[in-house]
Amino acid sequence: MGRFHFLKEKKFYINLLIILLLCGVLLWITFRLLDRYTRHDKVFTMPDFVGQDYRQVKHDYSKEFNFILIDSVYPKGQQPGSIYQQDPLPGSKIKKGRNVYAIIVAVTPEKTVMPNLKGISLREAIGRLESSGLDVDYLDYVSYSYKNNVIDQYYQGQPIEEGTELVKGSKIMLRVGIGDDKAKVKVPNLIGKHADEVKRILNLAGLNIGSEEWDDRDSLQYMCVMRMSPGPSSGTVNAGTYIDVWYHSNRTMDFNKEMDVLLHEDSIFNKPQPIIIDTITDTISETIETNDYEYEDEF
């Protein structure tokens, strides 16, 4: 009997056929399961969820995607609970049911601690506040030998000690010495400056921000100072003076081109007006005195 005698038997071919059929069925089942698992030919364009409320997005798209929250951050000016960053990025091709990783804006505000500002210069105090994520509320100048030296620190009208926990962005009032000479401070030129830097410039100069008016509405990054009162043409003012400012969008006004005009308008706006009443009073007084002299001469 030869080595390959089984090739002549019918039973061998029947078994071979059964094996091939089973392999075919297994391969078919495997590919079907892969298609189902990978969602073959079911591709979606990833929506842009940035800035939207995370809970609402998760509720609305729970059947399409599996959302996974991986972190929270504390960016300024963002709505708490909104999506700050997503992966995959908006516009990406993604299949239904895949994971979407999200970073959201923290719902609970970020905390910081109050630094000690007593006994240091105003400039250094402002720097320490900024490093701690805090802001100047306003400057209160009082009689004190050392000029621009921080005497005390207040939060919501009450003294606040070093190490006190605060929410980032809290405003701190600084009580500052005016100095023995009580010298006035120079008004900085704010015309053309962006709105987000105006308050800091004024505080560093020993001044406070007064009322803020918006001539038009645009994103804060485009708003610049168009007019101020008192303006730079005023020269010097008392420390702690409040400066009122008016803003206009630099997308609708060329501040570089209009600078001379704006500064001229500021000069006119801040130019002291003559006191007509006093002039008339002085003239009347002089006339009365002259008449009195003439009357006396007659005798």
Describe this structure in words.
This protein has three domains: 63 residues, Trypsin Inhibitor V, Chain A (2-Layer Sandwich), CATH 3.30.10.20; 75 residues, Trypsin Inhibitor V, Chain A (2-Layer Sandwich); 111 residues, Trypsin Inhibitor V, Chain A. It is 31% helix and 27% strand. Strand 8 and strand 9 form a beta hairpin. The N and C termini lie far apart (174 Å). The chain contains six helices and 16 strands. The protein is an alpha+beta fold and 299 residues long. 17% of the residues are buried.
Please report which band the strand proportion falls in: under 5%, 5-15%, 15-25%, 25-35%, 35-45% or over 45%: 25-35%
CATH-defined fold name of the largest domain: Trypsin Inhibitor V, Chain A
Structural class: alpha+beta
Order of helices and strands: HEHEEEEEHEEEEEEHEEEEHH
What is Rg?
A: 38 Å
- The total count of strands amounts to 16
Number of helices: 6
**Strand arrangement across the biggest beta sheet:** 7-11-8-9
Distance between the termini: 174 Å
Q: Total domains, how many?
A: 3
Task: Describe the structure in brief.
The protein has 299 residues and is of the alpha+beta class.
Supply database-style keywords.
single chain, 299 residues, alpha+beta, Trypsin Inhibitor V, Chain A, 3 domains, three-stranded mixed sheet, 6 helices, 16 strands, disordered C terminus
Tell me the layout of helices and strands.
Blueprint: H1 10-38, E1 43-45, H2 54-60, E2 66-73, E3 83-87, E4 93-95, E5 99-105, E6 111-113, H3 122-131, E7 135-142, E8 150-155, E9 158-159, E10 165-167, E11 171-177, E12 185-186, H4 195-204, E13 208-214, E14 223-229, E15 236-237, E16 242-249, H5 255-270, H6 276-297
